[in-house]
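Illustration 12: Glutamate racemase.
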Amino acid sequence: MAVGIFDSGLGGLTVLEAVQERLPDVAFIYYGDNAHAPYGVRDADDVYDLTTRAVERLWGAGCDLVILACNTASAAALRRMQEKGVPPGKRVLGVFVPLIEALTERQWGDNSPPREVAVKHVALFATPATVSSRAFQRELAFRAVGVDVEAQACGGVVDAIEEGDMILAEALVRSHVDALKRKMPNPEAAILGCTHYPLMQNVFQEALGPDVQVYSQANLVAESLADYLERHPKMRGEGGEGAYLTTGDPRRVSSRATQFLRRPITFTAA
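Figure caption equivalent — predicted structure in token form:
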């Protein structure tokens, strides 16, 4: 068995790299739904159907625990999947939880009433689907009061990154930051609400300025997963080998992934 990491494309590799470094003894199976990427422009029902199909494939591969390393899937599908019921012995976790914990400085299991937190003005950069779901704002409101969240839908950024056009991606990031700052001139913190965006973290930081704390997900997710597996050791599985699966063209996806992580990555057909 292994732990499954799912993303609509290649962005989840930023999470995979962080969890592999943090948990070198755990086997991971990565599933990229590259044939249907990006999810950020799809409607909620479509995202739910695609996410469910991917998670079931990972369960079939022996992954009792699946991490949705895709903010769009976490926003549009996770709650619905949990409400419909997950099979006994299986778990699906999203990437919003570690972000909310970091921002509010309280554990997810803390069910005390919402309270004031230090940060009052937060910029959220995410895909159009994640922004329209308002999932981040909803989860934050359960735990914090008095926080103003201004969301910016970053159209085109994921597509540019997936195509390897980092010059276009950088130009789009700067344009989206400018648009956000017209609505919220002085954010105190910024959430990079897509697992592709850590690849552009330096650009976000430079455009926002040095006084803005930028929250990126990969390391937060890695620490959260390490804590979860310590509390639920059976979800770690009994060994097994890692793998990289894709619904897209394995050769093309392998080439892009190798560029992403700067080490050889070989995908096989899902």
